[in-house]
Amino acid sequence: MYKRQVGGGAENATSNFVATVSGGLGNLASGPGAFIGGGGFDGNNIEGNTASGAASVISGGFGNLASGIYSTCLLYTSRCV
Predict the structure, then answer these.
(1) Which of 34, 23, 27 is nearest to 57 (CA)?
(2) Distance between CA atoms of 54 and 44, rounded to whole angstroms?
(3) What is the CA radius of gyration of the chain?
């Protein structure tokens, strides 16, 4: 059966099948097959990443949103569609 997975960190969540958050703080992988590597905290502030597009990817960073299908965010506070 397909599973969602949170590997570590704190206050991370997944809400769709085969979505993964590997670590970080305050991240949400809500698209099917979405992946977040980590991030969400810069040492002072919390602004988690959200991967809501199908098969979207956020490698890390702070405050990123990957909302488009197959979208990829690699930068700080990006909106990737």
Answers:
(1) 34
(2) 31
(3) 11
- What amino acid occupies position 61? G
Q: Are 24 and 35 in contact (CB under 8 A)?
A: no
Cα 15–Cα 44–Cα 23 angle in degrees, nearest 5: 30
Query: Which amino acid is present at 40?
Result: G
What does the alpha-carbon distance between residue 64 and residue 45 come to, in Å, rounded to a whole number?
14
Tell me which residue range forms the domain holding 17: 1-81
Write the pLDDT tens digit of every residue in 17-44. 999 999 999 999 999 999 999 999 999 9
Q: How far apart are CA 59 and CA 27, in angstroms?
A: 11
DSSP tag of 32: T
pTM for the full predicted model: 0.92
